[in-house]
Amino acid sequence: MSKILIVEDYKDLSEFYQEFLEGDTLFTASDGEAAVALYKEHKPDVVLMDLKLPKKSGIDATKEIIQFDSKAKIIAITAYGSTIGSKALEAGAKEVLRKPVRFNELKEIIAKYKSI
Known about the structure:
Rossmann fold; single chain; globular
């Protein structure tokens, strides 16, 4: 069983991820500040990070998590263009997925990083 941190401010999508990832230990945050705090407390195996978040952006949260743990496995998820995706990669994200997320692709990527 893996620990996964879901960082998503849209409640319905967060709940959908939680149902999709049932069976793993899940932590959820709806803003970047909570994401960093939960990461530091639980050190999850994988982070699903929305990039447009209140309080602290997903980019800034990614940078802060990477400073805390350079081996963090963060998968950025965004509905916005490739510009913000490239910023997420520069900040330390391992992959960028575009919304709407194809759940088969998400499942494969999570499995890939859970095994590393």
